[in-house]
Batch of 2 targets.
Target 1
Amino acid sequence: MLEVLLAQAFWLVGSAYAANAFPPLIAGHRPLDKGKMFHNRRLLGDGKTIEGTVAGILFGLFYGAVQILVQPYIPLSVGGKDLGLLTITPAIVILLVAGTMIGDIAGSFIKRRVRLERGASAPIMDQLGFVIVALLLVSLVAPISIEIWIILVVLTPVIHWLANLIGYYAMHVKKTPW
Ligand code: CTP
Ligand code: MG
């Protein structure tokens, strides 16, 4: 049963993860907030760039488009167990990608308001903010079971942390290991 839920959860969340993972790979230089200040602090900071945001959106949409194209051909059951994967639609992909970007950008906005510098760690919000907003938005058009919520809320921080360790120590694309 758990493996079926894991398959459902990661099948659903793929385009959100794709949209979140891609921006750090792009060395963006044009800050999304154009350097604007808000109450004496940067509105978002240099960690949110136009290039990174566009690349994240495009990669998330690309991932979702591939899912939509391949889903007629993937097995519906494994070992006799019905996988019950959600049929991915363009609306689902768009909401996941939009939610990911909104969650990530809102996280930076909040961090600047509480005087955390760009790149400073904000545990929970850094790792979970994007996926929570993405799932909330997608809930508008598709049912997300409580089991899927729990799996993604528990495992996303672990995966995020592992991916950032790899990005920092092995690929040198992250400025900090978080
Ligand atoms: N990035 C980007 N555009 C985005 C999101 C991320 O260019 N919309 C790039 C930036 O180079 C950023 C890196 O990915 O530094 C890591 O992303 P993240 O950890 O979200 O940003 P931080 O630098 O930690 O900034 P903040 O404190 O605002 O979260
Ligand atoms: Mg960060």
Target 2
Amino acid sequence: MVATAVVLLATYLALHFEKELVTSLEAGTVTERMISARSLVNALQLLLLAILAYLSVRALNFLIFGLAFRLRSGFEAPTLVRNIFSIVAFTILFFLIFSRIYPGVNLGALFTTSAIFGVILGLALQDTLGNFFAGISLQADRPFQVGDVITVGAQKHSGVIEEITWRAIKIRTFQNHVVLINNSTAAKEPIEVCPRENLNARSVFFNTLFADSPAKTIHVVREAVREADNVSPRIAPIVRIRNLAESAVEYEVKYWLDDYAKFNDTDALVRQRIWYAFRRAGLTFAYPTRTLHLERKPRIAASDGAGGAIMERLSAVDIFAPLSAEETGMLAQSAMSHIFAPGETVIRAGDPGSSMFVVHNGRVCVQINENGRPLTVATLNEGDFFGEMALFTGEPRTANIVALEETEVLEIGHEAMKRVFQTNPDLVESLSYIIAERRQGLAARVETSSPQTNESEGILAAVRRFFGIR
Ligand code: CMP
């Protein structure tokens, strides 16, 4: 105001005493100096009026945007708008003053006809003008204003807008850093705006055990969250199940904020309220859980009905004929029952194997591979056994066994047989003899090999070796 008063006074004097000023400057000088005296006075007037115009524009700017705009909208007008107003107003005033002092000079033509001036100015101000016009277009759209929270671009610069200038948008991040984003960059990037005068929503996630009732959880959390600071009372929070996950029921609580700029604090407060509400209501946050269903192998006791039938079945198997009832009972206890569909392969030739099978119900066929085609060499019925070679000698399976109908087999493992042999080592010999006999018989039926007289001894030795029996 003091500056304005001084300039005003000086301007008044310069205008009012124009003639006297010129006369005093002319006094005692030659004719050429009269021209320079006039120029000097004009220049002085131009300077003073320009300063006055500048100060007036600033005062006007303050009155319009600083006071009137603030009173009407509640916040200050963007700096960019104020700057544009100042530039335009000052340029108009300057032109008016200039044409009054120098009526003969066409200032407009001076600027418009100077192509070189335009090119130089354009090149020098390329970026600046880019930012300037991008800023104007941003302001024209008015997508955001001071106080809004925005997130800009791929780098996700997020913060509260502090200022929008002719060059950049200035945001204060939630780490209290200041980030300047060029207007031209901002104009190209996607911008997420959470306007200050808008009810912006947030989502917070939590989970519970499956044992906790969803209806109760939803009620408890909604009531706890709706009373938290900065959670808008205008819209009730929404609590809903997002997912029935592996070890938890996953929920989302969506709430609306009065002041979005404080969303970090509010999220934290909401989580805190949920924790306390859970504690009071006896709800439990989920932790990774896994339910284990332990499969009990179908060991069928010889005492029950099925076990009795197995016992009966095994007793009828000729290779087990030498076993005592107790030994057969041990085998029956360890036997595992498997059911195969018609056409399913029970064992495959060439596979390793350490168990034998007894056909309990149904029928199977023994197949060997002849010229790439399966050839059935025998059919085994209820009470027959197969897979004894692998069990007693450790050799690979010699043939395929395929179920001819739905078939139940009893599997007897290496360990069970070893226990039987250990309690009665004499059994090895008789078992080997029976096996050799059966093998010779089978071999004769399919005519694949000639019976060997000393096969029993060979098997006996192999079985002893395999089971570690002397
Ligand atoms: P393993 O060699 O363990 O597996 C295939 C089974 O098929 C074999 O034991 C015998 O039990 C059975 N097997 C092989 N050849 C014959 C055959 N000629 N007659 C009956 N059964 C056989």
